[in-house]
Amino acid sequence: MEVKNLGLFLLVLMILFGALACKSTPPGGTPPPQQDILDADNAPPTQAGLENLSAASRRAEEARKLVMDFDGPDYFPPEWNSAESLFNQAQSQRAVTTVKDVRESQARYITAAEAFEALADKTILRYADDVADKGITARNEAIMAGAAYWADEYLLEADNSALETIVLYESKDYYKARDKAFKTLDMYNALTESVEAYKLRLEIEERGLYNYDPVNIAAADDIAISALDDYDREDYAAIHAKAINVRARYNQSLDKAKESYSSDCAALAAAERQRALDLKANVAVKAEYDSANSVFNQGAAFSRSRDFDNASTFYLQSRTMFAAAAESAREKRQIAEGALREADLRMKESDETAQRAELIIEGGAR
């Protein structure tokens, strides 16, 4: 009886264990009980999970940096603030205690990354447009300065650099494209300043103004020559800076030379005016003298307003007019003196004729 009861007891246990086994094994892939899920979420994170979180974090940071480096916050403030808020939330709520923490942290970083990436696309396009506008403006200024005539090879070199910038941009190598774009801008700007400086130097030489300020002009020449070394190093920013300096020095020397030259022209005109006065041109040929004096006074007015180019022009013109007036006065004086001599001669001849007549009369009387 005891053996029989023991066998029945074992049978009941087997049935019981079988029922429990059926309840704990999900048929046909049925999800595990909620308790098991909760246990998995609260488990320590795996290495793969942590690596995925780090990758998501880097993705967001890189997209964020791209937007910042290309002026996205200035171009699109609302979009930037929204993406930045998502990123700050991901940063502040980052947790790695459990699998669930890592999964949720990763999701927040991905959301921020997607926001920054969408903003980066708009930012890069806007930035490229702005840089292109600056490049076009810089190139136009170089051409207006005369680069196509005075420095056509350097202009072509800058144009080729601009084309390389476009290639880099289209290949989405944005940082290299930006660097190349800045280099191209420096090339165009350096070209503009260099051509303008060269034209000033040429004017100094052609007008014979070098000796009015030789020390400063020579110093500017030395700076210009030193820029050749910068060109060999492709340091166009340095060339641009030196060209600005050289242009300013040439301008200063040219202004000084123009003022001195204008003073010389005024002195020459004044000397010619005095010669005309000595010949009484202001009386003998008053209209001519007054016209010359009016032009001289216009030169003086331009000089007072520091328009030395026009001052020199009017002084030289008045000098020619004073010389003409003096010559006219001299000729008029010569004619008058000739007429006086002729009249005096005629008077003498008349006196001689009268004396001969008197002699004849007196002789006849005797």
Rg value:
50 Å
Distance between the termini: 224 Å
Taking pLDDT < 50 over at least 5 consecutive residues as the criterion, the unreliable ranges are: 1-28
Shape: rod-shaped
Question: How many β-strands, per DSSP?
Answer: 0
**Count of DSSP H/I helices:** 14
The fraction of residues in strands falls at under 5%
Helix content: over 70%
What order do the SSEs take from the amino end to the carboxyl end, as H and E?
HHHHHHHHHHHHHH
Average pLDDT for all residues: 88
**Oligomeric state of the chains in view:** single chain
Q: Major sheet: size, sense and barrel closure? A: none
**Class computed from helices, strands and strand pairing:** mainly alpha
What does this 3D model show about the protein?
By secondary structure, this protein is an all-alpha fold. Among the domains are: 129-254, no CATH class; 261-348. It is 87% helix and 0% strand. It contains 14 helices and no strands. Residues 1-28 have low confidence and may be disordered.
Blueprint of the fold:
Layout: H1 2-24, H2 34-41, H3 47-69, H4 72-75, H5 77-92, H6 99-145, H7 147-150, H8 152-170, H9 174-206, H10 214-232, H11 236-278, H12 281-284, H13 286-304, H14 308-365
Helix pairs in contact: 3-5, 3-6, 5-6, 6-8, 6-9, 8-9, 9-11, 10-11, 11-13, 11-14, 13-14
Write a brief caption for the model:
The protein has 366 residues and is mostly helical. It has helices spanning 2-24, 34-41, 47-69, 72-75, 77-92, 99-145, 147-150, 152-170, 174-206, 214-232, 236-278, 281-284, 286-304, 308-365.
